[in-house]
Amino acid sequence: RQFQMRRVLGFRARGLCPGEVAIRAILALFLFIAGTLWGQVASNSLAPGATFSTLQAAIDAGTNDYTVWVYADSSTAGVWITNKQNLNLLLEPGHAPVHLIASAPGMGNGLFITNSTNIVVRGLSVTNFAIGILVGAACTNIRLTLNELISTSASATRGIALEGPLAVNCQITSNRLLGGSLAHGISMNNGSHSNLVFSNTIQGFANGVFLGLTTVVSNNRVVGNRFVSNGNDGIYLFNSSRENLVANNDFLGAGNHRGIHASGSASSNTFASNTVTGGAYGVFCDSISDQFIL
């Protein structure tokens, strides 16, 4: 990468005054040495030609309207995106998925997003987490796509968590989640609403998707996902789940004890055109309120 960068800088230097040529040559040499000695993992669209030795440094180098390209593994857990707008965190084309690895199995978050709007995260592989990707307070339009989250540790709690308060209009699409038997694959709590969970594969968790621990969780769509052998429930709608749509999902394997489970005061949720193969129950309602099964 640095060799190619030197060629680009050298080409652009033609026709410049000798002083400018010298400055660009020194800059190219510095980038080459830095990349060789310290190992660069990311670049930032706000600083063309620059590279960063940590993913966190590339993220922190801007505030709004920029892209961070990731092209090498980072072993640092607890990467933060906070107070950002219009940030793309993307795997650079042609590279294998980039790993965010927790310092010890089941410890820490892979990526924590808070107080941010219009964020895209694509192409990461998060392993050995307590929570793989945590979307916290005051987050809107967070898009998580084509990521891989794997943690078989007994200490893992959630693959992707929309915890809020008020995680709104987020999209979780085309991700692969593989987890331990005590965790939720995807959870939505604390007033999270109007979110989309679409075309994900969720396997090996206690519950594939969990909604509604505290404060009303409503108007979310869980559509077109594949649930494989999640020990308790493919989708578990708990007390504060209201007016959510669960449709066109496939529940596979005897490990899904219940395909869809509505519990407690969960109410007015719609279950439509889901397919359940194996397991003890397709749709199980011990809720005191009405659900709509189509």
Structure write-up:
With 294 residues, the chain is mainly beta. It has three helices and 32 strands. The strands form four sheets. Strands 1, 2, 3, 5, 8, 11, 14, 15, 18, 22, 26, 29 and 32 form a 13-stranded mixed beta sheet that branches. Helix 1 packs antiparallel against helix 2. The longest helix is centred in the first third of the chain and has 21 residues, at 18-38.
- Average predicted local confidence, pLDDT: 82
Low-confidence stretches: 1-15, 27-38
Main β-sheet: number of strands, strand sense, barrel status?
A: 13 strands, mixed
Category from helices, strands and their pairing: mainly beta
Strand content: 35-45%
Rg measurement, Å? 22 Å
Distance between the termini: 54 Å
Shape: elongated
How many individual helices? Answer: 3
Number of strands: 32
Report the helical percentage: 10-25%
Keywords:
single chain, 294 residues, mainly beta, 13-stranded mixed sheet, nine-stranded parallel sheet, 32 strands, 13% helix, elongated, disordered N terminus
Summarize the structure.
The chain is mainly beta. It has three helices and 32 strands. The chain is 13% helix and 45% strand.
